[in-house]
Amino acid sequence: CGYDQKYSGHTSPPSTTGVLGLGNGKTSILSQLHSLGLIRNVVGHCLSGRGGGFLFFGDDLIPSSGIVWTPMLPSSSE
């Protein structure tokens, strides 16, 4: 959980410190970038059978084949 994180080191915290919101809500990084007109509301996580993979936002770098899409449904609790 990223709530109320504290860093007690004497140097700057690592660049990977923090939380990235990937939920359906209006405060997620995807919703915020989409509302600013920077990306389409798309996130992808590609995994490799040999380990590794990548995470992308928006649809600028999507290859024309080899990707299977699963749409996210809007939350009914909002």
From TrEMBL:
GO biological process: proteolysis
Annotated Xylanase inhibitor N-terminal domain residues: 1-59
GO MF entries: aspartic-type endopeptidase activity
Domain of life: Eukaryota
Gene3D superfamilies per UniProt: Acid Proteases (2.40.70.10)
InterPro entries listed in its UniProt record: Aspartic_peptidase_A1, Peptidase_aspartic_dom_sf, TAXi_N
Pfam family name, one: TAXi_N
UniProt family annotation: Belongs to the peptidase A1 family.
Record-given protein name: Aspartic proteinase Asp1-like
Lineage: Eukaryota, Viridiplantae, Streptophyta, Embryophyta, Tracheophyta
